[in-house]
Amino acid sequence: MNEELDSAVVLVTGVMAAGKSTVADLLAGRIPRAAHVRGDLFRRMIVSGREELFPEETAEARAQLELRYRLSALVADAYARHGWTAIVQDIVLGADLPQYVTQVRTRPLYVVVLAPSTTAVQARETGRRKAGYGVWTIEALDQSLRVDTPRIGLWLDTSEQTPEQTVSSILENLPSARVLPGRADF
Q: Is the dihedral of CA 114, 117, 118, 120 positive or negative?
């Protein structure tokens, strides 16, 4: 196994139904000491007063999203500090991606962006038990990914890949996913 991943943080991001959960689980399983940090768990911990994030976001929904990101970054850093590799899985798009990168203190930090086509996302969404899209459209989130999100880390078009192939691509291209210390050009 690649020693670069010892006590590291890996963020796996992309749109809903891009395969983040499956890929993060499989990636964690290929690393000797790894934890899967699911960003959505922090959203679901809010029992009362939770505001869902809609395309026309409210200040409270934005504040809750930012809290979720801060919490997952803190947990990832804590795992890494104790010798674990933290695989963080969440939807972190647009200007939130460079902000998230600055919140994670651990280095090495790797960012992996799963970017399947809208056709592939539609097929995956149809096959899922849960429905991620409602007021959001696949096309709107895809545009946020491709137009508004800075090109940080390793971007993979996983349209034609199995989750296992995606994990192999991540491990084979790990240096491309690494966020360099002090990088501020995103």
A: negative
Classify residue 140: in a domain, yes or no: yes
In degrees, to the nearest 5, what angle opens at C-alpha 40 toward C-alphas 169 and 61? 125
Count of all residues that appear for the chain in the document: 186
Structure tokens at 16: 């809903």
**Domain, as residue range, for 42:** 3-179
Q: How many domains does the chain have?
A: 1
- pLDDT, tens digit, 9 for 90 and up, residues 141-174: 899 999 999 999 999 999 999 999 999 999 999 9
Q: Say how far apart CA 159 and CA 15 lie, in whole Å.
A: 13
90-119: pLDDT as tens digits: 999 999 999 999 999 999 999 999 999 999
Q: Which helix (H) or strand (E) holds 38?
A: strand 34-38
**Nearest-angstrom CA–CA distance, 36 and 138:** 25
CA-based R_g, the chain, Å? 16
Contact 31, 22 (CB under 8 A): no
186 occurs within a structural domain: no
